[in-house]
Design brief:
The chain is mainly α and 54 residues long. It contains two helices and no strands. The longest helix is centred in the N-terminal third of the chain and has 27 residues. The mean pLDDT is 87.
């Protein structure tokens, strides 16, 4: 086990970081994720402010 981490430690850490980043990005961009919800609120607020101008 020690030999594996000595040889492939950097590669293992890199893979773990990439998987973690993919999970966070997937969570943020999911259908009910933070980014999607905030973008929908931004568009709703924009169009509510544009309506009175008509």
């Amino acid at each position: 086990m020690k030999e594996i981490f000595e040889q492939y430690g950097a590669a293992i850490i890199t893979v773990i970081v990439i998987v973690a980043l993919a999970a966070v990005i997937g969570f943020l961009l999911s259908k009910d994720g933070t980014v999607q919800r905030e973008f929908a609120e931004l568009l709703t607020g924009f169009f509510e402010q544009v309506k009175p101008a008509n």
